[in-house]
Design brief:
This protein is mainly alpha-helical and 194 residues long. Helix 7 packs across helix 8. The protein is elongated, with a radius of gyration of 19 Å. 22% of the residues are buried.
Length: 194
C-alpha cells in the first residue's frame, strides 16, 4: 500500500472511530462513514468491505493509542506502584468519559460477532493487561512496595473490577467517587504493611 493510500485508510479509520463513539457499533452504516469521511462509496469500499472490518481496525488503533499514552506517562524512575497508579488513572479517565468512549460499540460488536477464543481481541487485550499487572505486582512485592501472595489472581481481579466498572458506566452511569473508592480498595489490597 502506497503512502497516500495508507494515509487515506488511516483517515477513514480515525474518522470512523468518532462515528462509532457517537452511535455505537450496531447503528453505524457504511453510508455514515462515507458521509463523515466525505469520500465516495467506492472510495470506502477500496479499503473496507463492511463496518465490521472498519471497526476491527478502529479497535487496533484504539489499543495502539492507549499503549502510547501509557508508555509516555512512565518515567525511568517510576516504581511499580507509580506505574500501576498511572494505569488505574487512565482507566478512570475512560470510565468517566462516556461520550468519548468506544465501550458501548465494543460490547455491541462482540455480542453481535462472537469470535473463537483464540482470535478474540478483547480476550487478548484482557490477558495482556493481566500479564502486565501481574509483573508490576511481582516487581512491587520484590521491592517491598506491595504484599501479595497470588499476583496473577490479584491482576485478574483488578481487570474484572475494571470490566465491571466499564459495564456499570455504560448501563447506569457511575460517579467519580465510586471509581475512586474501587481503585482505592484495589490499591489497599496490595500495599505492604510497614
Amino acid at each position: 500500500m502506497g503512502d497516500k493510500s495508507a494515509q487515506k485508510k488511516k483517515l477513514i479509520v480515525e474518522t470512523a472511530r468518532q462515528v462509532f463513539k457517537e452511535k455505537g457499533f450496531k447503528e453505524v452504516t457504511m453510508k455514515d462513514i462515507v458521509e463523515a469521511c466525505d469520500i465516495s462509496r467506492g472510495g470506502l469500499y477500496l479499503y473496507f468491505q463492511n463496518t465490521r472490518e472498519i471497526f476491527e481496525e478502529v479497535l487496533k488503533l484504539e489499543q495502539e493509542d492507549a499503549d502510547d499514552v501509557f508508555e509516555a506517562g512512565i518515567s525511568r524512575e517510576a516504581t511499580p506502584s507509580d506505574v500501576l497508579a498511572l494505569f488505574l488513572k487512565e482507566q478512570k479517565k475512560e470510565l468517566l468519559n462516556r461520550k468519548h468512549s468506544l465501550n458501548k460499540a465494543v460490547y455491541e460488536y462482540f455480542f453481535e460477532n462472537p469470535v473463537p477464543t483464540k482470535d478474540n481481541l478483547l480476550k487478548k487485550q484482557f490477558d495482556a493487561a493481566v500479564y502486565i499487572i501481574e509483573k508490576l505486582i511481582e516487581a512491587g512485592v520484590e521491592s517491598g512496595e506491595f504484599y501479595c501472595e497470588d499476583s496473577r489472581g490479584a491482576a485478574r481481579n483488578i481487570m474484572y473490577v475494571l470490566e465491571g466498572l466499564k459495564i456499570a458506566s455504560e448501563t447506569r452511569g457511575i460517579s467519580e467517587t465510586i471509581v475512586d473508592r474501587e481503585i482505592m480498595y484495589v490499591m489497599q489490597g496490595l500495599i505492604a504493611e510497614e
